[in-house]
Amino acid sequence: MSRSAILNVMVQAALKAGRSLARDFGEVENLQVSRKGPSDFVSAADIAAEKIVRTELQKARPDYGFLMEESGVIKGEDPQHRWIVDPLDGTTNFLHGIPIFNVSIALEREGVIVAGVIYNPAMDELFTAERGRGAFMNDRRLRVAARKSLPDCVIGTGIPFLGVGDHARSLKEIRHVMGEVAGLRRCGAAALDLAWTAAGRYDGFWEHGLSPWDMAAGLLMVREAGGYVTDIDGGEQMFETRSIVAGNEQVQGQLRKLLVNARG
Fold first, then answer.
1. CA dist., res. 170 & res. 132, Å (int)
2. What's the pLDDT tens digit per position in 130-184?
3. What is the signed CA dihedral for 194, 198, 203, 204, rounded to 10 degrees?
4. I need a labelling partner for 92 at 20 to 30 A (CA). Which of 36, 79, 108, 189 fits?
């Protein structure tokens, strides 16, 4: 596949940050038994990865702004462009030595996501997408799964945890969905969940309470792989509602209908 110059910049930033995370990931097992615990170490790994991404992207486009998980909003001189970055999506997995985490980078132009990169260094899987040019994993073209009937489908989701999220709503939604599908999965890294939906590993995915950096790159990948992405109500305000439903046209519609019915 041929990549644009800007996508190559994003890929190199993600790979460099991913190598840093991979080195730190190798130390997590030793930290599990330390008195201090691994939390401070993981926070440092997160911040180091974000610094790498920011440095690499600023070299190429110094005028672009940023929306970053750790550093927040950084305004640039170019008001039409901003990078949306999660340097370590799947922090809890990383903390526990589970090899499902990623660096996520998206480029937003005038409010539209036009390029995205998601890299899982533990599995060496690089997902890329550009608007109108398709989605790829390690240069292999991606297509969403073709299954059309929910009983045949494996669906990914997010599950709230201690002190975070609407637990009652989640239980209602899971109860409505689990009796209609072949399986539910919760892997703990929303960007990868969306990338896996684009790759056809999941037939569909939904989650609430996400931030823009959790879904910006992934939603583009699903769409470039031929899928549909909306919020729970079928709108385009995923960043505002913080909800997302993804899949092929048939599965996404059926899944969204189940979620709406769960409110009753």
1. 34
2. 999 999 999 899 999 999 999 999 999 999 988 888 999 999 999 999 999 999 9
3. 30
4. 108
